[in-house]
Design brief:
With 122 residues, the protein is mainly beta. It has no helices and ten strands. It is globular and about 40 Å long.
Amino acid sequence: HVQLVESGGGSVQSGGSLRLSCTLSGYTEDSSEMGWYRQAPGNACELVTSISDEGSTYYADSVTGRFTVSRDNAKNTLYLQMNNLEPEDTAVYYCANRWVATATCPDPRFGSWGQGTQVTVS
């Protein structure tokens, strides 16, 4: 299976930016569907954005126009550029190689997930 490791989280002020990275290793061929999820305390897991191996993307309404997902298949890396961050974006962010609707992140029933990276916006 594929292993995923996120990086790039941190604390920023409202209006700031962060760039998250997700590095894939192992069976990287299982990465045609990649997604960024987030979960804040008391909230359900949310699919924030997704990207196919051909570059087709999806964005949740709450992040459209502020977040940009991309991938570098040669580097086996997925990125999430987050601009104009808001306190409501505060959450643990996860990358995964499946597009699913699930209440809890990570959900090992569906593909592989990273360990998560904390994003805090104040």
